[in-house]
Structures are given as structure tokens and as C-alpha cells.
Protein 1
Amino acid sequence: AIQLTQSPSSLSASVGDRVTITCRASQGISSALAWYQQKPGKAPKLLIYDASSLESGVPSRFSGSGSGTDFTLTISSLQPEDFATYYCQQFNSYTLTFGGGTKVEIK
Amino acid sequence: EVQLVQSGAEVKKPGESLKISCKGSGYSFTSYWIGWVRQMPGKGLEWMGIIYPGDSDTRYSPSFQGQVTISADKSISTAYLQWSSLKASDTAMYYCARFRYDYMRAFDIWGQGTMVTVSS
């Protein structure tokens, strides 16, 4: 099964900072990677699909890049509402995997 | 409005059976896969399996194969997740979500979650 390794597992940042989260797949997955944001007590929310496509309604400060095994989620200017946990997810031959998550906390 | 509405929280004893539900509305329920995701307290997301309500084609994560059963009743636009004998380690929040197999290959609509607590 394909494993996804996210790093870092947590980070502290200030409002206005540029934040980058990485997700590495144990084997190539082309661009079949999505990113989600989850706030405490809430269901996850889709941010990015197909590695770099922004879901409708998601602010443009969120962006995704990468293909094959290495992917990144970037928040260009961190806002107060962005403090949350972020997960990557891959799809390959009807098997899905989530990364372990990255908690973004206030510095 | 496209939405998935899940059944309410459950408190069960070890060894009991349980079936929780996820009702879709606002879209063609038979045309999209529905997935189930577990989140244990304070932990990350784990994919359990997906079902295509149109023909009940079901795929399971190897970690959950044989541990749970996923089903759907397309006549009432509802997917289900069931256990025949619960364990304390099944205590978790369970989410259903619509899976876009087309160009997205991602879960675009999520239910509100069903909390399952298993305790003697």
C-alpha cells in the first residue's frame, strides 16, 4: 500500500507568514493528491485536488504543487482562520491513504 | 444544496452490533462513490472503504477488510457502515464523504460525523 509522509507534524507560525507543508508518497502517484483542512470538532474540508487545482470557494492564498512522489501545500499569507490541521490524501487503483497530518499553531 | 447527513451519536457495549447511516441529497446519489473515514480521538484520518451506490461495488482498506461492512440502499439514497461485534478500539468519529472519481479523485462533500463510543 502507498504510504504518505507529511512534514512537519506540527509548526508554529504568525499571521502573515508563508507556510509550506510537504507530503511524500512511497511510490509515484502522478497528480492524484488532495489536501484537506480540519478544524477542531469539524469535518475535513477539501482545499486542493489533483495536486494543484483549487477547490471552488477556497481562498487563493492556498496553493498546491508537485507530482510523482513529492508534493507541497503552501499558504502564502497565514490568516487567523487558517490555524488548523492539514492532511494530504492519495488515490491509486481504488485505494486511498491519508497522511499523518500537520497541525498549524499560533506562534 | 448538496449534503450528506449522518445518523446520531451512539454509545454501545463491547460485543454489540451497530449500523450507522449517511443520507445524501441534492445530487444523483447513484452516480458518485461514498467513502467512510475513521478518526480516533486525537488522531488522524484513516480511510476505511468506498462504495458505488449505483451497483454496490465496494472496496475496502486492507486495515478494515473483514472488520466492518459497507453497504448502500439507493432507493433511499443512504449508505451504511456496520459492525457485527464492536470493540473498545472502535471508539471514534466516523465520517462519510462523497468521492469524486472523475478529475478530482478526492472527497468533496463530507457528512457531519457520527461519534461511536464503545464502553462496558
Protein 2
Amino acid sequence: QKEVEQDPGPLSVPEGAIVSLNCTYSNSAFQYFMWYRQYSRKGPELLMYTYSSGNKEDGRFTAQVDKSSKYISLFIRDSQPSDSATYLCAIWGNNRLAFGKGNQVVVIP
Amino acid sequence: NAGVTQTPKFRVLKTGQSMTLLCAQDMNHEYMYWYRQDPGMGLRLIHYSVGEGTTAKGEVPDGYNVSRLKKQNFLLGLESAAPSQTSVYFCASSYGGTGSYEQYFGPGTRLTVT
């Protein structure tokens, strides 16, 4: 079983819609939970992180962690064309990051 | 600050050729990493370093070697390139310890092995 599972299917939404992305993980020892954003032909950049169960908001972005279910989510409200990118979940543990496969999100104007 | 830079940006190799990818960071980070990214596979860790003079294997180390002779540089070597090593290679760096969840990535090197 992979450490982080993320269904890599692409997602197209109209501008203004809510984008919902999620991942599951297998090792309950992992401590930090991240979402990285990667624009086309660029390196990933950290978007949000959290280390506890619950919600964390940053503007239009909300990261949610449920440690009991080993489930992490990212919600993007009022999506904009500039949000078009690949979003990778990642978890930190054992001195390294384990990444999900990423979801390509396209926001259509 | 340039952040994390990678050289070269693109390269085409023939099977069996060798090459070295250079990563440099100007943030005084302790930890550095090499990843490869393939369609449908996500980012996979090749090797990493937790300080000058140290290296360790990641998830997919076979066919690669690394060296960290200076704190700011991390080199990735392919001794005998194979078509399976066609990929986009990313270098990253971080402060180290529990702060290492925040990694700063370079722009990537696109390598094609024919």
C-alpha cells in the first residue's frame, strides 16, 4: 500500500465553482500534512500545511485533516483561472516527504 | 535571492551516456533532495542529503549517484543513462529537522534518453 493515495484524475470546473481535492494516507505516524501547487513546467511550491486534525483557512483555500480516517482535503472557493495548476498532497514523516500523484485542475473562464 | 537553481534545463542523452545535473541553493538550507516526476507516478525521491558531506538513498536510487561536497550544491549523476530515466528531475532544499516539510523546489531539468 502506497503511503499517500491521490486519485490523479484531471478536474475541470467553471470559474467561481468550489474545487474539492482529497488524499488518503496509510501511516498514522506522519505528522505534517501539506498541499503543494505546481504550475505547468514549474517546480512545486508549498500552498498550505497543517499538523492537526481540523480545518485551516488561508483566503479562498481550506485544508482539512481527519487523522482518525487518515484523510486530507483541499477546498478552493470561488475558483479563478489563475488556480489552474496541479495540486499535490504530501505528508511528512521519517525525515522525508511522501507525495500523492497530483490532480490537474483547470478553471474555465 | 535566486532560490534553487538547476543546470541544465533540458538535455537529450543517448543510452549509455553519462551526465551530471547540478543543483544550487542560496538560502543556507541544510537539507537537499533530488526527485523525479513522471506522468501518473507523482514525485519520487531519488536521493537526499541532510548536510554537507552526507547523502542517503530515497525511494528510487538505482542508476543514480549523488554528492554534496559544498552545502549550497547537490549533484545528481547518471553513469550510464537508460530510456527508463527519461523524466523531469527536480531539486529541492529545506531548513532541516521538523521544518523540512517546507521544501523549495527548483524549476526542473527535462531529460530525454533515446
Protein 3
Amino acid sequence: AQSVSQHNHHVILSEAASLELGCNYSYGGTVNLFWYVQYPGQHLQLLLKYFSGDPLVKGIKGFEAEFIKSKFSFNLRKPSVQWSDTAEYFCAVNRLDSSNTGKLIFGQGTTLQVKP
Amino acid sequence: KAGVTQTPRYLIKTRGQQVTLSCSPISGHRSVSWYQQTPGQGLQFLFEYFSETQRNKGNFPGRFSGRQFSNSRSEMNVSTLELGDSALYLCASSPTSSGDPLGYEQYFGPGTRLTVT
């Protein structure tokens, strides 16, 4: 079965530390890849997306992600986290075939806690 | 543009009852997807509607149904509620068009928190 795995369930960092959240998916066809963030009390927001082209994509708030096709990975990075980055982060995959329209497959999420 | 809106935001129902949740997509978006979010199962896809037609459906029982209106607004209905249906139900809209090979990102609403007692 298709799946999306996020390696870290709970990450605790101090401000200014670097962040890398892992994401792997199990589907071998063409995919769109996303990272969403859910701040406390807020709805899911799109951080960044990969559709095609440059495998290094930049998103909002200084986040970036790298698509490595050979590893089926789409890891999220930020060089220096802030307390305001405390949130839950979700990796999501959309398989590009007619039977999967409108369907995002989500990882289980990673809770990031940034200590001031 | 206004974002995706969902009503009601909170709902408490009793086992055996039915419930209808509403979603208004971003203006111009014709695709609406629904998800269930629980602590144990995470975010799971329920179904997607485009131009009033269900194009895709997840692995949920037939008690879960939906529809989409000509103005792209969507509703989902859960009949014969069970305790396990307690969850946050999220609606997302997308500007995708029919047969678009590239796909588009989805924009999420705040969700409806359903509690079944």
C-alpha cells in the first residue's frame, strides 16, 4: 500500500538550531510533494511544494525542501529555527494518475517544539 | 481572496444520529476534498468532488457521503454516527481542472470538530 513516512514524531530544538525533518514515500510513479504546517490553534497551511524542475524548492518563512527521486525522499530543512516555528509539520504526496485525483496521502506528522 | 470556510466549527452529536458539514471553497476553485483527522490515524482522505461529481473516494464506509453544488460548495454527511467518528473534519479546495496532469496544491479550511457521545 502507498504510504508516506515521517521519521521523527517529536523534535525539540533550541532557537537558532538547524532543522531537518525526514519524509519518504513508497510510490514509484510521478508525484507532487508538499509540506504543510499546522500552528497551534490554526489550520493547515502550505509551506512549500514540488511539482517538477529544480529538486530544491524554497517555501515560506525560510523553509526549503529537497526532492531526491532515487531515495523517494522529500526532506524539509531550515537553517535556523525560531520559537514561532513551534508547530506540527506534515509531509504529503499526491500521486499523479486518474485514480488519485484530489487525494493527498499524509505522513503521521512531526511535532516541532522550539525552546526560546 | 477569502479562504476556505467550514461550518459549523464545533458539533456535538449522539451515537446513531446523522450530521451534515458544510464547506465553501476559495472563489474559483472547483475541486473540493474532504479529510478526517484523528490522533490515532492522522489525516485520511474521504473523497473529492469536482464539478458536482465525485471523482475519488477513500476507504471509508458508506455512512460517509458527500455532494457538491453548482457553486462548488460542498457538504459531507455522516449517518448513524459512531463514537469512532469523533474527529476533525477538514475540507480543502484546489484550482485543479478536469484532467490536469500536473495537479495543484490544496488549501485547507479550519475544520469542523465533531464529537460523538
Protein 4
Amino acid sequence: SYELTQPPSLSVSPGQTASITCSGDKLGNKYACWYQQKPGQSPVVVIYQDSKRPSGIPERFSGSNSGNTATLTISGTQAMDEADYYCQAWDSNTVVFGGGTKLTVL
Amino acid sequence: EVQLVESGGDLVQPGGSLRLSCAASGFTFSSYWMSWVRQAPGKGLEWVANIKQDGSEKYYVDSVKGRFTISGDNAKNSLYLQMNSLRADDTAVYYCARNKNWGDAFDIWGQGTMVTVSS
């Protein structure tokens, strides 16, 4: 079965750039998307179709996808960005999530 | 307002059954692929099942095949998940979610409903 691999955790200082990777076989041939989930809340999509931002998502969130790796980049990370982030892609008609990355802003 | 509201979560014994419901409002339910996604306590997101707009196609994660059944009622704007032969590792918050398009992101999520499988 298809797998997506993310680093379990990442720490950044406020104002720095956070880059979270998601690896999967030929992932660049699929659409990748990213979700932010804060404790006790439902996930929220922050990037879809590799690099598009839904309305209401700050411009500091951006995405790319090429080869075997998709990347979520948060520029000028703020304390409010501390959360779990999940990548997701479709494999045929099924859906796969990455294991999640806990982003700590300190 | 576009909204998904789940219900039906409960405490159930191993081997038992439960039916989850998801009520959709604010959009044309029959135009979207819909999914169930679960999250075990302290763990990541796991896709469980999805269903095509007209119900003609349904897909499941391997761990629930033969035990769970996804269904939808376009007349009632509702999504369901019938869960049989429940196991302890099915314990999770279950979310229903709308796919923006086939192959694309989940753009709308419900608040989730908790299923606990324990004796």
C-alpha cells in the first residue's frame, strides 16, 4: 500500500521559516495537500493541489511538490502556527495521510 | 453555512456494532465524494472509507474491509458508517469530510464523534 512519510517533529523560532517534508513514491505525480490540526480541533486544509491556498489561509503558508517529496513552507512562523501538520494524497481511489509532524514554535 | 455534523459515537463492547451518521447542510451533498476519517487518541489521521456522489463506488482501508460499510442518502443529505465486529483498535474520533474534488483535498470537516471500544 502507498505510504507518505513525514518527520515526527520540527522546532522553529518565531519569525523563522519552517519546512515540513512529505515523502512518497512518485508523489510529484499526484496532488498533495496539507492540513493543520490544533489540539481538540478538526483538521483544516492549508494547502491543496500542491501549492494553492484556500481563502482565509495566510500568505506565509506555501507548498510545492516534485519528484518524491512535497514540502509545506511556513515563512515568518508565528506562535499561532504551532500545531500538527499532515500531508495527504490519493492513491487510485483511496486516500493516504502522512503520519503527521508536530511543529513547535519556541 | 456549509457544515457537517456527526453523531452516533458511543462506548461499545468488542465485537459490537455501531452506526455513525453525518448530516450535511449548506451545500449540494449529492455533488461531492465523501469520506470518513478517524483519529485514535494521541495518534494521526487515518482515512477509513469514501463514497462517490451517486453511491456507485465505495472504497475502504484494508483494516476495516468486511466490517465497515459506508453509505449515503442524498435525499436526506446524510452520510453513514455502519461498523460491525468492532475491535479495541477501532477506538477513535471519527470525522466525516467532504472532498473538494476527486483526487483533491478535504475542504470541509465535521467536529467528530468519539467511538470507544472497550469491555
